[in-house]
Specification:
By secondary structure, this protein is an alpha/beta fold. It folds into 3 domains: 1-43, no CATH class; 45-139, no CATH class; 164-228, no CATH class. The protein is built from 12 helices and 9 strands. It has helices spanning 2-11, 20-23, 28-31, 74-78, 91-96, 122-131, 144-153, 170-174, 179-184, 186-194, 201-213, 219-224; strands at residues 49-54, 58-59, 62-63, 70-73, 84-88, 110-114, 135-139, 159-163, 229-232. A 7-stranded mixed sheet has the order 4-1-6-5-7-8-9. Strands 2-3 form a two-stranded antiparallel ribbon. The longest helix is centred in the last third of the chain and has 13 residues, at 201-213. It is globular.
Length: 234
């Protein structure tokens, strides 16, 4: 009983009536109803919210401005009908993305999702990817790290947005590359090369090109220079 009283004095919550398991699944505002230590025993802010937008500004019953986006709970996103779910690695690419950048995807049936950082919660995106029945597409930087994210972190059967090598070659891509980024990713490239036999042939050819021409091109550069893109299954 002494321990119970101490917990009540410290947190304002009576452990005999408050379930820790329930508390950590609730928001800080909800938990603050029965404790003054809501930060310690509640879900993290944004832990169930995903930042998303569409090409035409319409997402279910919601709309956003041309340069805007929405923050919705995973449970609500799942109820919205769409065919393609595109995760985008960088935030500024996410907000700058327009239909002409990915013309191979239908304007009115595609959701664009920011993959997340230290503010937007990556775990919420992971939860969405696990629950969605839509076709999953990932668009990242064209380098070893970007390929690894698309292959390893976005789930099985994720389609990758990559330069169309039928329209642009390694020499042109190398002129857009950040050599410092390529050098930093040497270990990642070696890891992927060791797994090359387990990767689709079309992905392995991109690894070979990245190695041969020391390629590390950011999404921003891909968009700014209008690099032709294509979809490749994994």
């Amino acid at each position: 009983m002494e321990l119970v009283n101490w917990v009540v004095r410290q947190t304002g919550a009576d452990p005999r009536h408050v379930s820790y398991e329930q508390a950590i699944s609730r928001s800080r505002t909800q938990v603050a109803e029965f404790t003054n230590e809501e930060k310690g025993i509640s879900s993290e802010p944004r832990s169930d919210h995903v930042e998303l937008r569409s090409f035409n500004g319409f997402i279910g019953k919601y709309t956003h401005s041309d340069s805007g986006y929405l923050g919705l709970k995973v449970s609500e996103i799942i109820s919205i009908p769409f065919t393609y779910l595109v995760t985008i690695e960088n935030f500024d690419t996410f907000v700058d993305m327009r239909a002409e950048h990915l013309p191979m995807l239908p304007m009115d049936k595609t959701l664009l999702v920011f993959r997340g950082d230290n503010k937007a919660h990556p775990r919420a995106v992971k939860k969405l990817l696990e629950q969605t029945t839509a076709n999953r597409v990932h668009y990242g930087d064209y380098d070893s790290a970007g390929l690894r994210i698309g292959l390893k972190s976005m789930g099985k059967n994720t389609t990758l947005v990559l330069p169309d090598l039928k329209q642009i070659g390694g020499e042109k891509l190398s002129k857009l590359s950040k050599l410092s980024a390529f050098a930093k990713q040497e270990n990642i490239l070696q890891q992927l090369e060791r797994q090359a036999d387990d990767l689709p042939v079309n992905i392995s050819s991109h690894l070979q090109l990245i190695r041969k021409h020391s390629i590390a091109v950011t999404q921003q550069s891909l968009m700014a220079h209008q690099v032709p893109l294509t979809l490749l299954s994994t």
